[in-house]
Design a protein that fits this description.
Layout lengths: L1 H20 L14 H9 L3 E2 L2 E2 L27 E2 L9 E2 H5 L4 E2 L8 E5 L1 H13 L5 E4 L2 E5 L3 E3 L5 E4 L16 E5 L5 E6 L7 E2 L2 E8 L5 E8 L1 E2 L2 E7 L4 E6 L10 E2 L2 E8 L7 E5 L7 E2 L2 E9 L5 E4 L5 E9 L8 E4 L13 E2 L2 E2 L11 E3 L16 E6 L9 E2 L5 E5 L6 E8 L2 E7 L4 E9 L5 E5 L15 E8 L7 E4 L3 E5 L7 E9 L1
Parallel strand pairs: 5-7, 6-8, 7-10, 8-11, 9-12, 10-14, 11-14, 12-15, 13-16, 14-17, 15-18, 17-20, 18-21, 19-22, 20-23, 21-24, 23-25, 24-26, 25-27, 25-28, 26-29, 27-30, 29-31, 30-32, 32-33
Antiparallel strand pairs: 1-2, 3-4, 33-34, 34-35, 35-40, 36-39, 37-40, 38-39
């Protein structure tokens, strides 16, 4: 018995020593209580081989459930906090931070490769933004997106933003813009509509950083603002059959439905195909119109459709209209229309700080038309009136304005002095015409008496806004000065002509004259 006990103690000591000296490979008896030292040693000496511990992988306690839609905190799921590390910044829930970020249309299935139509995906992203209390910016990452039907923003504050709309010279087939929306829908369709839902209002929207490709006049309108207010826009486009931008009045809105308070930083592009339309068209209704909007720059090439057509704008500000009439183009650059139906539908009281609409191929291209007569030549009940062009650019062979009887347009060529309604230079005779704010007309020019002649005269034209030639009321002063030689002469003027008389000179005599009247 003593021998058995001694042998048992020896075996037990060997097992304990083995467990201590080689814990990674120790074999423990079920139910055995292990010390902390034994557990730590066993784990720290485990060999990791190719992602497995001692050759065997650790199984998942439960399989992955895939995508999740919420990071909200719960008892079993503590909130994930995030901190950018800026001075004074506090930890915030990651979910709250993500809910403030812009919404990518790609997350809704849009295809930036231009292979599949993306209009439905973009509409779904916009609908999500309309419903979201915090995410209002819908983002189109770099790429080309095919629009096969119209997309509508019908709620306030939602913005559609791209990565870059390209330069003024972007033109199909070479478009260098970073984000391109290309129309592939029905002929004459509208790509984006910003309009209220039923009798609601839509404000504070924005469209920027996108090039709108009309696909060779397949599309009708790139962006249509319907009773949209207080938004910001930068529209760059090419080849739309109606216009890059068109404004309209909602028939469903019963309160103030004006298109008002918007800022257009830029409307630019190419309308150079025979089937292309205008750059900008504004429309009005009986009681409402486009008013108090600010256009910083309209810069485009146009062809056989008028560049900018205003139908009832009131008190708008246009900083620069820089339009270039394409080769052999026939259209006016800027059209100011009147109305026979409503005093709110005639174009009035707008200010244009610089207008250039000519072309370099031939003289007298483009120009401005201010309407006072209907298509049959009858006076309009509400002609275009009280519009002012501060600087009518004389470069690029821009045609002189055409103003119908009954319509009024104040304009000056190359930045006339303040207080002038009109100021422009004339070539026949060489001189100028000036009309100040009191209505006084000044006609200056030159008259030449040929050698052997005794007199020369100049017949006054029909001045802008008048219906008959010459001074409507009376001549108040007339002056003349010989420019070739000091000779005796006499000068007289009627309401229709000025005449200078001087003997029978051996050589031609030239006189400068100035006639003032009302």
């Amino acid at each position: 018995m003593k021998i058995f006990c001694a042998r048992l103690r020896s075996i037990t000591g060997f097992l304990i020593a083995a467990a201590v000296l080689d814990p990674a490979y120790a074999q423990f008896v079920p139910g055995q209580v292990l010390t902390a030292t034994q557990l730590n040693s066993a784990l720290q000496n485990a060999a990791i081989q190719g992602g497995a511990i001692n050759g065997a992988t650790i199984g998942s306690s439960r399989p992955s459930s895939g995508a999740f839609t919420s990071l909200a905190a719960s008892t079993s799921n503590p909130s994930l906090l995030f901190n950018f590390g800026g001075a004074g910044e506090s930890d915030r829930a990651l979910q709250a931070i993500l809910q403030e970020q812009k919404i990518s249309v790609i997350a809704f299935g849009a295809d930036p490769t231009g292979t599949r139509p993306s209009a439905t995906a973009i509409q779904n992203a916009i609908n999500y933004a309309c419903a979201s209390p915090s995410q209002k910016t819908v983002y189109e990452p770099p790429g080309t997106y095919l629009w096969d039907h119209s997309v509508t923003i019908n709620c306030p504050a939602v913005k559609l933003i791209g990565a870059g709309g390209g330069g003024y010279n972007d033109n199909a087939p070479t478009i260098n813009a970073t984000t391109i929306n290309r129309w592939v829908g029905a002929q004459g369709g509208t790509a984006l509509k910003i309009m209220p839902a039923a009798d609601q209002k839509v404000e504070d929207n924005s469209v920027m950083g996108i090039f709108w490709d009309g696909n060779n006049s397949l599309g009708g309108i790139a962006v249509n603002l319907v009773s949209a207010r207080y938004g910001t826009y930068d529209i760059r486009a090419a080849h739309w059959s109606t216009a890059f931008v068109q404004t309209d009045i909602s028939a469903a809105a019963t309160e103030n439905s004006d298109v008002t308070g918007n800022i257009f930083y830029n409307i630019s592009g190419y309308q150079t195909l025979p089937t292309d339309g205008s750059v900008l068209i504004t429309n009005s209704a009986y009681n409402h119109n486009a008013c108090w909007n600010h256009f910083f720059l309209i810069q485009a090439v146009y062809f056989n459709s008028p560049g900018v057509v205003l139908n009832g704008d009131d008190s708008e500000r246009f900083d620069v209209i820089n339009l270039y009439n394409a080769d052999n183009g026939t259209a006016k650059g800027l059209v100011l229309n009147g109305s026979n139906t409503s005093p709110y539908a005639n174009t009035r009281h707008n200010t244009f700080y610089l207008v250039g609409t000519g072309g370099g191929q031939r003289g007298n291209q483009g120009g401005v038309y201010s309407q006072g007569l209907d298509a049959s030549g009858n006076p309009l009940a509400y002609p275009a009136t009280g519009n002012n062009i501060v600087w009518y650019d004389a470069e690029n062979s821009q045609a002189m304005p055409t103003i119908d009887p009954g319509s009024s347009l104040w304009w000056s060529e190359d930045n006339a002095p303040a207080g002038m309604r009109q100021f422009y230079y004339t070539s026949s005779p060489v001189g100028y015409v000036q009309v100040d704010n009191s209505g006084k007309i000044t006609q200056a020019g030159q008259i030449t008496i040929p050698a052997g002649g005794t007199s020369g005269s100049f017949t006054f034209p029909t001045y802008q806004g008048n219906t008959t030639a010459g001074f409507p009321h009376a001549v108040v002063s007339v002056q003349a000065t010989p420019t070739t030689a000091a000779v005796p002469f006499w000068v007289s003027a009627t309401n229709t002509a000025v005449t200078i008389t001087s003997g029978s000179p051996d050589s031609a005599l030239t006189f400068s004259f100035k006639v003032e009247g009302y």
